[in-house]
Structure formats: C-alpha cells, structure tokens
Amino acid sequence: MRHTAPQTTRRNLLLAAGSTILLGATGLPLRARAAAQSQNFLPDLPYALDALDPVLSANTLGYHYGKHHKAYADNTARLIAGTPLEGQSLVQLIAASAGKPDQAALFNNAAQTWNHSFYWQSLRPRGGGEPPAALRQRLEAAFGSVAAFKKEFANAAITQFGSGWAWLVADGERLKIVKTGNADTPLTAGLKPLLAIDVWEHAYYLDYQNRRADYANALLDKLIDWDFALRNLG
Length: 234
What we know:
- This protein is mostly helical.
- It has helices at about 5-25, 60-80, 90-95, 105-120, 135-145, 145-160, 205-210, 210-220, 225-234, and strands at about 165-170, 175-180, 190-200.
- A hairpin with a 2-residue loop joins strand 1 and strand 2.
- It starts with 6 loop residues before the first helix and ends with a helix.
C-alpha cells in the first residue's frame, strides 16, 4: 500500500493505533523478553500449538510461529542492534521505516512481526459462532449482516493476489475490509486493525494445500475471536 498522507501525520496515527491494539487495549501485551544482547520481539503464543486443531494443526503452528514468525522477530532485532533505533517498539520501528527504500528490510521484518502477533490474537480455540451484540450491531450497520461481513472478509482473503493479509479495520467510526500485500499493514494508512487473516502460503499450505477458500472460511466459522475485535474497537 502506498499513501500520500504527510509523514508526521501518518506516523502519529500509526503510533496511536498500533500501540493501543497490541500494548494496551487487548489485554494481551507483547512481552519483549530480555535477551542476551538484543531485543526479543517474539511474543508468547496465546495458546498451545495444538489448541487450534483440527482447523490449524500443531504442525502448521510449529512452522508458522516457530520458524516464520520467529525469523521476522529475530531479523528485526538484528537489524536495529547497535543503531539509534535499538530499544524502540515494533510500532515505532514501523513508523520510522515505512515508505523509506533504504529501510525496506527493517520495515518488512518489523511489520511482519507485528502482523503475525496480531493474527495469533485474532484466533482462539473454539472461536467463531456469533459475535457479541455490540460488535454484531456495528457489523450489521457496515455490511448489512454478519453473514454478509463473513462472506466479504473471506472473499478479501481468497482474492488477495499472492502473499498478504485481509483485515477488518476501523476507519474512524466506519468499519471496512481492506487487503494488504506482503508485509504491508493498515497501520501505515492510519487505520485501526480489528481482525486479520494471514494468507501467506505458510499460514495454511500444510493443512489446506491450494484450498485457500477452505482455510479462510474455517477460520471465520471456528476460530475467529470476536471478543478481540470488540476490545480493539474500544
């Protein structure tokens, strides 16, 4: 995603939205555990590796969280070690590197670390079902019905070309669905993420192969954490 908002405004919006979501309002803070000589940006997974089975297997979570997510977190720490950016949060790093070609590696790794941390919190064992009344009313106002929202959200995940993400976001008081490619995140557009579906192939290929639609619909029907979205709305 590329945006033309002034850098200062975009950065302030990003810091406000991202810090609230992952560091306060969710009740699931990222624990930057002390490491030997670098920051550790990998949060604890909020459930056991096999807790999302059979929708997502322990094998998928082991590779996705333990290999891919960990690599992004480790790369972020490595890229800022010994630089003036050391000690900053993921949201601050995203704000500092967004839209800067010479900081593309940092942006990609920091944003992917943040996106993955948010994705894990968008899911929960025995999730899905009906959203809380307050969220249901907002979804019905924005999309006509919960069923219509789920159809549009799944379609965004299915039709994102290549790797990327589907998001439910708040744009001010308005709820909408957006897609981002690769490591891009709604934070850089001043949007507040509420839920995410990861559609990088490593998120689903071991369990679903090329059946991305089955994966997206299974998440919405059986794993999505409506309470997380409601907490993010504030």
